[in-house]
Please model this.
Amino acid sequence: MPPIRVLIADDHAVLRAGLRMLLDAQTDMEVAGEAGDGSEVSRKARALQPDIVLMDLTMPGPPSGEVIRQVLRACPKTRVLILTMHDDSAYLASAMAAGAAGYVVKKVADSELLLAIRAVHAGRTFVDLTQTLRPPQALPGSGRVQRPKELSRRERDVLRLLAQGHSNQQIADHMSVSVKTVETYRTRLRQKLGLRERAELYRFAVESGILDVDPRS
Model:
């Protein structure tokens, strides 16, 4: 099989050099190129069509979410894996909403990063935060914790798609329902779970097993 071609995107040259050495030492990977800012990421991804863009969130240039979307529009077969210092579920939710397929923090071991690259290349979602996920929240005034078994199949489907970053329109298209129906399901989820922010939905979906990500997440 051809090696996994990776575009390394980070504004720190020393870090890029270290990543290049790590990836070049793998028999199933090769570095397709490097980029030092957001604009360069988009240009080089379009020119090189890598399998993976290994990308920092905080680089000079356009916002990271915009860069991710530009890459995915220009390179439909490319997957974006975030490598960042931000160990925060809000950043995670933002990146996943923009279309990233994976998210790992820079403090992970080399072996974990390689595992993430291979998992994302294989079509899986990979998330590794060192934070502990919050448990499901209790319903206001009930004293009991909302469990996923209390969600209908359609509610679970909507929750999973929301946690993956899809918009209401995308969810409606995927489920062959109207946007109004999706909004109704979202209202039910808020009422049942007491969760409003996408990051909270993501945490709950992972914690409850509704969203299938790597166990290390």
